[in-house]
Design goal:
CATH topology of the largest domain in chain B: Rossmann fold
CATH architecture of the largest domain in chain A: 3-Layer(aba) Sandwich
CATH superfamily of the largest domain in chain B: P-loop containing nucleotide triphosphate hydrolases
Number of domains of chain B: 3
Radius of gyration of chain B: 23 Å
Structural class of chain A: alpha/beta
Mean pLDDT of chain A: 80
Helix content of chain A: 55-70%
Strand order of the largest sheet of chain B: 2-3-4-1-5
Oligomer: heterodimer
Structural class of chain B: alpha/beta
Radius of gyration of chain A: 29 Å
Strand content of chain A: 5-15%
Number of helices of chain B: 15
Shape of chain A: flat
CATH class of the largest domain in chain B: Alpha Beta
Number of helices of chain A: 24
Largest sheet of chain A: 5 strands, parallel
CATH superfamily of the largest domain in chain A: P-loop containing nucleotide triphosphate hydrolases
């Protein structure tokens, strides 16, 4: 059996579901490549959740315009060299056809470079990958499409990518349009699928077209009929709605058992559930005394979690669950009615967003701690604020420390409050290299010592490109 | 000026160590006899514990000191495996070149877990012939008794004003700085006997001009502390919980402060708040309870949130 997601992937723009605005933006961009290299955006970046047509759109461009495709995706090795070699292809104005014949761009058409899952490029092994990507986007002589789920992480790490590439946002299609697509596929595959079954699948997939098609295929495997009952057998557990329902029960009931059961039904790790409850106390309870009691209950629940972790005795989990459910339920002194839109724990989003930054900060803390004979923690608290200030105000200090602590571009970027691939960061490394070359020169030209020293001084006196106008305060980043 | 001054001006010899005459005299007698027991240095931050350990080893071992000296920070590596593997590996091998034993300097030894301390005790005993320990901590009582009894304990006094002045003047002379009288007083005040802090503040003040006066010092010392901390407390007392929680997240995530740091600073700041004294004492009691729960609990953010919710409630501005 063929994979239906591939088999039924639309070739051109016509079969793409929804996202008409995105597609027309993409067409305009592709048109701009028809008469030479476009002035503004050489690359387009397709942003959106998985399975909503980004890759299909990219290939549709190639199909509609008759361009050949060079594709690199997450399963390929993702390092600077891989991207550079692709960039090398992209830099060629003239292309070779698949059969190896030489053809000019006019005859042979263009090569469309597709970097799928481009936000996965930043693994630890991929140092330099992001830089190579930035260079590709700026200098390519062939059209480039980047495909990402998480644009935020890309933007944070590279100013080039966000400024030089045309951003095209893809949105989740409506269940109705997915249902239409599924009906079409069922027809072609000669499957008798009930309208309710189709509806259930298209709703369940939450906008993920690929997921919906996969579900359909797995459900009809070996049969020719599909009913709603079959779909429900998939489990159909919609995690989000369950946790939302769980929250509603905990915050509205006054019954210990009902509250506790609501959490039991979630079947989640209490370390995770506690974050949901913690996040939603203030939106659920408006009286400050109620909030205070609820937070006290959550705080006690957290104590049990701490004890479980320390003693590895999971028997205490139940008390933690009791406190965070029943304890919170019974903290209220009045009834709260009306619709509440429960929120995803902001702590988790903030922590995952800041992961890169925190890693960089810790690595600076380690180096600084080694230098000044203190722990990483203490270096971060006591030494880093001053270090950072000196790093920004005293250029010589900045250069010397970058060299002696062998700071990388991420670390220098963090200290200067700049992106790692930005000019102020590059300047630091350029200056260090220049100094090294100069001193090497001075060493080789022994007879002309005086002259080279003068040279060096001249270099130093050149006005620097300003690092960043004086920070208002130390933590202005 | 392109060095970190706390390193540049760290005393190189025992004689240069300021304000610990009694300690230094005893340490010098070890140098003379080329022998020493396990040592424990106890005392507040920035009073010369690390400096003395480094200077002692240098003077005792001469040029080969680095080969026979191993420095570790227990707060970076606090588990039992560290004692079992890293420390043991270093301790059991013979000293290099012509030295009678090796030295392990274990900083912040009081942050070792009790299991790790128990393991350390055996290691200390077993390898005494090849290796001597210098344990450094803020409070000797945080180390288990069997370890304390195996060490000669040295108490480092917090430095008095004259000692700090003496040290800072040395730096000023070498860096050609002018420190005004009120500037010096300000340095003494913000440093509170911590030479590391005094030196850092002096270096940053110096990067702004060659004259260091009180204004420069206070400006510098406040940059070391995030404004958000006080804001968070005031915001909570005003009754704005969500705002206060956002500030808390900023402190934890953007500044990378630990829950304990935040609690300690919250405690320090309570006294200066512009609220009723009865509210202060209630908050202080709750801060104590919060710190206790931090130790017992698993997520410091949740515990501090509970404190903020309490402050909202007692602040008197909130909806009841």
């Amino acid at each position: 059996m063929h994979d239906w997601t591939e088999k039924h992937r639309p070739k051109g723009f016509d079969g793409i579901i929804g996202n008409s605005e995105a597609v027309s933006k993409l067409k305009t961009w592709a048109n701009s490549w028809e008469n030479g290299i476009p002035k503004k955006h050489r690359a387009a970046i397709l942003i959106g959740e998985p399975g909503i047509g980004k890759t299909t759109s990219a290939h549709a461009v190639a199909h509609e315009y008759g361009w050949q495709v060079v594709e690199l995706n997450a399963s390929d090795s993702r390092n600077a060299n891989a991207i550079k070699s692709i960039a090398g292809l992209g830099a060629m104005w003239d292309t070779f056809t698949d059969t190896g014949e030489y053809s000019t761009s006019k005859e042979g058409g263009r090569k469309l470079i597709i970097l799928d899952e481009a936000d996965n490029v930043f693994g630890k092994e991929d140092r330099g990958g992001i830089k190579a990507m930035g260079e590709l986007i700026s200098n390519t002589k062939q059209p480039v499409i980047l495909i990402v789920n998480d644009f935020y992480s890309l933007k944070r790490r590279s100013s080039v990518i966000s400024s030089k590439a045309l951003q095209i946002q893809y949105r989740k299609p409506q269940p109705a349009s997915i249902a239409k697509l599924l009906r079409g596929i069922a027809q072609k595959e000669k499957v008798d699928a009930s309208p309710d079954a189709i509806k259930a699948i298209s709703k369940r997939c939450e906008g993920d077209i690929r997921g919906a098609v996969n579900d359909l295929q797995s459900l009809v495997e070996g049969k020719d009929k599909l009913t709603e009952r079959d779909v429900l057998a998939l489990g159909g557990r919609d995690q989000k709605s369950t946790i939302f329902q769980g929250m509603a029960k905990v915050f509205r009931t006054n019954n210990c058992k009902a509250s506790r059961d609501a959490l039991m039904d979630l079947d989640e790790d209490p370390n995770f559930t506690i974050l949901w409850i913690d996040e939603n106390i203030p939106v659920s309870y408006s009286l400050s005394d109620d909030r205070m009691r609820a937070y006290d209950a959550v705080s006690k629940a957290d104590i049990y979690l701490g004890r479980v972790r320390r003693r590895q005795y999971y028997g205490l989990w139940k008390y933690s669950s009791d406190m965070m459910s029943a304890g919170v339920s019974l903290s209220k002194t009045r009834e709260y009615r009306g619709y509440v839109s429960y929120k995803f724990p902001s702590w988790l989003t903030n922590m995952s967003r800041s992961k890169g930054t925190r890693e960089v900060r810790n690595s600076i803390g380690n180096k600084l701690g080694k230098l000044t004979h203190i722990s990483k923690e203490q270096a971060l608290q006591d030494q880093l604020p001053y270090f950072k200030l000196l790093f920004n105000t005293d250029r010589e200090f900045c250069l010397k420390m970058t060299e002696s602590l062998s700071l990388g571009e991420y670390e220098v970027g963090f200290l200067l409050g700049q992106k790692p691939d930005s000019h102020p960061v590059k300047n630091v490394f350029d200056e260090i290299n220049k100094k090294k070359q100069n001193s090497a020169k001075a060493r080789t030209k022994h007879s002309e010592v005086d002259e080279s020293q003068e040279d060096e001084q001249e270099e130093e006196e050149k006005p620097e490109i300003v690092v960043k106008p004086a920070q208002k305060n130390l933590f202005d980043f | 000026m392109n060095d970190v001054w706390v390193e540049k001006y760290r005393p190189k010899t025992l004689d240069e160590v300021v304000g610990q005459t009694g300690v230094v005299e005893r340490l010098k007698s070890y140098v003379e006899t080329m022998n020493m027991p396990h040592l424990m240095f106890a005392g507040p931050a920035g009073t010369g514990k690390t400096t003395s350990a480094l200077a002692l080893t240098k003077e005792m071992f001469g040029e080969n000191w680095k080969l026979n000296f191993h420095e570790m920070n227990a707060s970076d590596e606090r588990g039992i495996d560290v004692v079992r593997n890293k420390i043991k590996d270093f301790a059991r091998t013979a000293p290099i070149a012509d030295t009678p034993f090796k030295v392990i300097f274990l900083d912040e030894a009081d942050s070792l877990t009790s299991d790790a301390q128990a393991a350390l005790r055996r290691t200390m005993e077993k390898y005494t012939n090849t290796c001597r320990f210098i344990l450094s901590c803020n409070y000797s009582s945080k180390l288990i008794d069997p370890i304390q009894s195996r060490c000669a304990v040295f108490r480092f006094k917090s430095l008095n004003a004259d000692d700090v002045k003496k040290y800072l003047r040395r730096i000023a002379l070498s860096e050609k700085l002018e420190v005004t009288e009120d500037g010096m007083d300000a340095l003494l005040y913000v440093a509170g006997g911590d030479l590391r802090r005094a030196t850092n503040i002096m270096q940053v003040s110096a990067s702004m001009g060659t004259t260091i006066d009180a204004e420069a010092v206070y400006k510098t010392s406040s940059t070391g502390r995030p404004e958000e901390l006080k804001d968070m407390m005031i915001t909570a007392l005003k009754g704005e919980f969500i705002e206060a929680r956002n500030l808390l997240d900023k402190l934890l995530i953007n500044y990378g402060l630990s829950g304990h740091d935040i609690i300690n600073q919250v405690h320090r700041n309570v006294f200066d708040l512009d609220v009723d004294e009865h509210i202060k004492i209630k908050v202080i009691e709750k801060i104590g309870e919060t710190e206790f729960r931090l130790i017992e609990g698993s997520n410091s953010r949740i515990q501090i949130e509970a404190l903020l919710a309490f402050m909202v409630s007692v602040g008197g501005h909130a909806r009841r």
